[in-house]
UniProtKB/TrEMBL annotation:
<dbReference type="GO" id="GO:0046872">
    <property type="term" value="F:metal ion binding"/>
</dbReference>
<protein>
    <submittedName>
        <fullName>Calcineurin-like phosphoesterase family protein</fullName>
    </submittedName>
</protein>
<dbReference type="InterPro" id="IPR029052">
    <property type="entry name" value="Metallo-depent_PP-like"/>
</dbReference>
<dbReference type="InterPro" id="IPR008963">
    <property type="entry name" value="Purple_acid_Pase-like_N"/>
</dbReference>
<keyword id="KW-0732">Signal</keyword>
<dbReference type="InterPro" id="IPR039331">
    <property type="entry name" value="PAPs-like"/>
</dbReference>
<dbReference type="Pfam" id="PF00149">
    <property type="entry name" value="Metallophos"/>
</dbReference>
<dbReference type="GO" id="GO:0003993">
    <property type="term" value="F:acid phosphatase activity"/>
</dbReference>
<feature type="signal peptide">
    <location>
        <begin position="1"/>
        <end position="21"/>
    </location>
</feature>
<feature type="domain" description="Calcineurin-like phosphoesterase">
    <location>
        <begin position="143"/>
        <end position="329"/>
    </location>
</feature>
<dbReference type="InterPro" id="IPR004843">
    <property type="entry name" value="Calcineurin-like_PHP"/>
</dbReference>
Length: 390
């Protein structure tokens, strides 16, 4: 019987013994796990596991649901990836199920055409996570935004999170001023974030406008990968259907500063088409007591129609709440004739905690000193229907 406790190895046979039995050359060298493992974009049936090693390695995740142990090994075009950054996407998971996992990296010393030289394996400590479920009675997540490379800010905010009562950490974007390097991604954001979350809590990330800028912006998705392979996705979390959107840049593509290197307009059109399908056909969305959008720019971003099509879709679909950042200061607007949903913009030095049951969704916003800022309570109510969307 498998027990969930830190330090327990899921291995059946020690790595050194296995390695000695292999016909190829195996050096007595192991990779060191330098970052992670951490979980990104958990859903009710999938999650991305990411970690880094100091030396080229190939990777797998050993996973146990308590009854059976299986190993998930990625391949790209038929080859096992070898590198320093490891992404293993776990799919086919059962909803609402607790899994224990180990991130395992095996050193590749030299990639020769035949008989590559190998090394030994390193395993992370066993950690556990629980998949979301459409039928879980509560949804509970904490939200930060616009941390903008301020690690002291990240530390102050995440220290205030009640991790035991939090299903996930949502980051609403602009973790950076611009994206320059791998070391920056870890040093200014993921390292202090993972230290607070631990290896068993997932990060749900909505890209901010600053994250489309810089020499390393095109690599960012490799560090916050989603099982869907997209920066926008939806999650069924009990009473909450959460739509994480990418509002991309805050200026049109033809703005001179982008030197014709941005094509967010067709990207956003594809995202809108996805959203239309999502709210029109997803059974959990149709029946969820609360439909919540988490995105960086509360006005949907820089769009030719100033977001009119998105607002119309959100109104028609019965979105209850938009959670956004970008402005760096708190604001709240109740539903009105223009938008039929609550709009809450979180400040830069604030933490929001969202807690929802079938009947009530509560957003509690506090400062980085723990002082209350605002509490929003939304009772469950859906006058509109997601059918016949505009
Ligand atoms: Fe922003």
């Amino acid at each position: 019987m498998f027990a969930f406790c830190a330090g327990l190895s899921l291995s059946i046979m020690p790595a050194a013994v296995r390695a000695q039995a292999e016909p190829y050359k195996t050096f007595d060298t192991r990779p060191v796990i330098t970052e992670g493992p951490y979980l990104v974009a958990l859903s009710d049936n999938a999650v991305s596991v990411v970690w880094m090693t100091d030396a080229p390695s190939h990777a797998k995740v050993r996973l146990s649901n308590g009854a059976e142990v299986r190993e998930i090994e990625p391949q790209v075009d038929g080859l096992v990836p070898v590198g320093l950054r490891h992404v293993v996407t776990l799919t086919g998971l059962a909803p609402g199920t607790r899994y224990a996992y180990e991130a395992i990296a095996t050193r590749v010393v030299k990639l020769k055409p035949y008989w590559p030289d190998k090394g030994l394996s390193t395993s992370s400590p066993v950690a556990a996570f629980t998949t979301f479920s459409a039928s879980q009675p509560r949804a509970s997540f904490s939200v930060v935004t616009d941390t903008h490379e301020d690690t002291a800010r990240i530390g102050r905010l995440l220290k205030l999170v009640d991790w035991v009562g939090t299903d996930a950490l949502v980051h609403l974007g602009d973790a950076f001023n611009w994206v320059d390097s791998e070391e920056q991604i870890f040093g200014k954001w993921l390292r202090p974030t993972i230290a607070a979350m631990g290896p068993g809590r997932p990060l749900l990330y909505a890209r901010g406008n600053h994250e489309l800028r810089g020499a390393f912006a095109r690599q960012l998705s490799g560090y916050v990968p989603t099982p869907e392979g997209s920066f926008y996705y939806s999650r069924a979390i009990g009473p909450v259907h959460l739509l994480v959107l990418d509002t991309a840049e805050d200026k049109p593509d033809d703005t001179n500063v982008y030197a014709q290197l941005n094509r967010t307009q067709p990207y956003r059109e594809a995202e809108l088409a996805w959203l239309r399908t999502q709210v029109g056909s997803d059974p959990h969305f149709a029946h969820a007591p609360f439909r919540v959008v988490a995105m960086h720019q509360g006005d949907w971003g820089a769009l030719p129609d100033r977001g009119a099509a998105w607002t119309a879709l959100a109104n028609h679909a019965g979105i209850d709440l938009v959670l956004a950042g970008h402005q760096h200061v708190f604001s709240y607007e109740p539903p009105d004739k223009v938008h039929g949903y609550h709009q809450l913009t979180l400040g830069q030095d604030q933490l929001a905690h969202v807690d929802a049951t079938e009947r009530l969704l509560t957003v509690s916003v506090i400062t980085d000193q723990g002082a209350p800022v605002y509490t929003l309570k939304i009772p469950a109510s859906h006058p509109s229907s997601p059918e016949s969307l505009p």
